[in-house]
Amino acid sequence: MPHFERLYNFACWLTHDRQDAEDLVQETYAKALKGFSSFQPGTNFRAWIYRILRNTFLTSRTGLKATATVPLDPEGEEETLPTVKETPESILLQRSDWQLVQQALEQLPVTYREVLLLCEVEEMSYQEISATLAIPMGTVMSRLSRARGALRAAAQKMQQKMPGVEPRG
What we know:
Layout: H1 4-15, H2 18-34, H3 45-59, H4 88-107, H5 110-121, H6 126-133, H7 137-161
């Protein structure tokens, strides 16, 4: 199935729940197969399928109400040790940075979170994001700018609340 892993990853970020993400991707593919006649050859399939996933998410029962978190490590996979020599302190800082970013990202409104994820995680172009979200490219750019600012502010606010941690950057 084309784009399965990336769709599932995006669905996990949207739903904050692996089971709901699996259901969302399954429903997305079912809708895509049912409505494949509406796909116009020569257009961007990736944007088309992501739009189906997004619209399905927004109309689902979990839509904008998801509150669970996605685990940092996939279940059942063992952690591998890095080949580069790192200190326990540097590893702790990297993990705390990732947790901080993940928690800050989860606090963002869906409109900001989805545009950030499509751009930074899924590496979509502004044009693809525009097609996926059915919004003008200028709106993509302004939402992305606002989303990055909101993410930065949320991360800084959370960092200030951490005892004994000096804010960076």
